[in-house]
Amino acid sequence: MIRTLGYCFQLVGGVLVERCPARSEVGTRLLTLSSQLSHCRTVLRLFDDVAMFIYTKQYGLGAEEEDIFVRCVSVLGNLADQLYYPCEHIAWAADAKILRVDSARWWTLSTAFWGLSLLLGIARSLRMILMLRRRLRGPAVAFTSRLPRTKRRAMEAQVQSEVLTLLSNVADLANAVHWLPPGVLWAGRFPLWLVGLLGTVSSLLSVYQAVRAGGQAEAPTP
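Structure for Peroxisomal biogenesis factor 11 gamma, as requested:
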């Protein structure tokens, strides 16, 4: 929720500052609020390392995955996520004058790990979508016709979930590249409102998925 609000404030604030000069003061205040919420999220992530480590350890080498490609990108994605956190912590500590290091380098490194994780997530989602659609609509018509209705619905729901995850990761990857040093693709070229728009879309998709997953978990099995 903090993430969604932060990006929404950035979207509205960016539009007001760049498109509505008469309300630029309100836009500036919204951008300040967005910045503070982002800082809040950075501080809260100081406590996420253990949870991430436990998840990475439980997943291991992805022995439960049927596809070797999905297994590889998932393991690499977990590793990128695990390395992202300490890099961001060091950057935060440098900005807070706790550590005497160049924070810019650590922010760049953390953003690079985040972008790598998103890129691997996109590859994983594409692979999962192709595999699931092949099972649902592939040449083995006789096999798909024998699928139980509940299993078929579950596979269709998984396809939709992977599509939403893909779109969310693409939006976040666009912002991740924007925050890299100038000269890397479109780094630094996005206006504030576009960063806010992409972040808002990604956040709303994540919220929708979480609500949808909760509703499906509570729904009775027919």
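The chain has one domain: 1-214.
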